[in-house]
Design goal:
homodimer; RNA methyltransferase (chains A, B); methyltransferase (chains A, B); RNA methyltransferase activity (chains A, B); Alpha/beta knot; 10 helices; transferase (chains A, B); tRNA_m1G_MTases_N (chains A, B); alpha/beta
């Protein structure tokens, strides 16, 4: 995977360029291009703020104009929150991420995303160079993102567009999931203890209550270690004998 | 929509708390809780860095322990990149966002997300208080996010989980899409001009080439203004007459 080129247009603070590099590498993006950085280049503050994404900073290419920075690209996306008086396709970062993945997979396309500077974002001329406007869905009453955060969201969508992380898993370390038989034995032992302790006022309620108790344990996704723990709890509580009466 | 409570545990720099507030409000989240801020509270740097999300800062509640900060919540998510030696459900922010939306829609649940401080993140004890571990899918070789960026990604997923923004649209400002008949008339006029200019070497190729030209225009999603522009182009080019021969 290569991923889109990140083009920073008129960025001001070196710290922000560095934080962009960090956000890029968080998402597996490595190719940064910079157009007219206000404070010159190279910039030590950018390196300091990159939190280790130094390669991204050191390999960043410098350009005098946006046209030169995107000359070799086949598909250009411009991030902007403002509405423009022009006719252009507008995509969410998620849709654009899928679009970029599809185009890059052909091997003939190279995509880039333009990000405007801190002060005023991209000019209308910059946006007109792009094929697509990228607009992040955010709180309409407070939608101004800082530069590195805009880069992070676009990169994150690109990264997760093909990431195979399951939505939800259970980490069980060195344990293994309990077998149904292990759960049965544990529930039976618990049930005997409850019988002996007079838990069930009426025998009629026993099946329902025991089923609810079983469900309570099953919902938690028991491991072999959990089973041993519950056995230990049952044994200990029985051995402990009755609690002393309050005030008795 | 209310959204999850954001709980910052042992945050250090006021600037980072401020940037968290900004990221929260970007995503429509407003309830911040802070456990043991290193540099005290209130913190002017937090207000300065919030870029206008001052209400979030001023309404933030302060706590001495994580237990107190989450006491009224029904469902707690802990953000951590590190693997822990415990059995716990792990979700992506996207799956957790859907989970939070579903739970909050019942009106009986209140969710919260724990974020650890800049230095070392959440302790294992903090994580054990949570029902679910939230792990952001990122570059496995460079996955450390700064605090505000972690808050942003979780908030962004929560916001977009019910955001109705279409994946892709075309902004056409004050224009309206061209009708099929307007396109037909434009293409016919263009065709006449090409006939007069000897564009078609062989009459056989005319239907195919004209169809390709029509597709080229249709792909761009023409507006009524575009149609007028193309009419003007055809008219002007015909009026301009032949280009002078080079070197002639």
């Amino acid at each position: 995977m290569t991923g889109p080129v990140v083009v920073l247009v008129d960025p001001q603070m070196g710290e922000n360029i560095g934080m962009c590099a960090r956000a890029m590498l968080n998402c597996g993006l490595t190719e940064m291009r910079i157009v007219r950085p206000r404070d010159g280049w190279p910039n030590q503050k950018a390196i300091d703020a990159s939190s280790g994404a130094v390669d991204v900073i050191e390999n960043a290419a410098l350009f005098d104009t946006v046209e030169e920075a995107v000359a070799d690209l086949t598909r250009i996306y411009a991030t902007t929150g403002r509405k423009r008086e022009m006719v252009e396709t507008v995509m969410t970062p998620r849709a654009a991420a899928a679009d970029i993945r599809k185009r890059e997979s052909t091997g003939t396309e190279r995509c880039g995303v333009l990000f405007g500077g801190e002060r005023s974002g991209l000019t209308t001329e910059d946006v007109a160079l792009a094929d697509v406007i990228l607009r992040v869905p955010l709180n309409p009453d407070f939608k101004s993102l800082n530069l590195a955060q805009a880069v992070l969201l676009v990169g994150y969508e690109w990264f997760t567009a093909e990431d195979a992380t399951p939505d939800s898993t259970v980490d069980i370390g060195d344990s293994r999931p309990a077998t149904r038989n292990e759960i049965d034995i544990m529930i039976e032992r618990l049930g005997r203890g409850l019988d002996d302790g007079g838990f069930f006022r009426s025998p009629d309620m026993r099946p329902t209550v025991m089923r609810n108790i079983r469900m309570l344990f099953q919902r938690s996704g028991l491991t072999d270690q959990d089973i041993r723990t519950v056995h230990g709890i049952v044994e200990s509580l029985r051995r402990a004998g009755p609690e002393p009466r309050k005030g008795g």
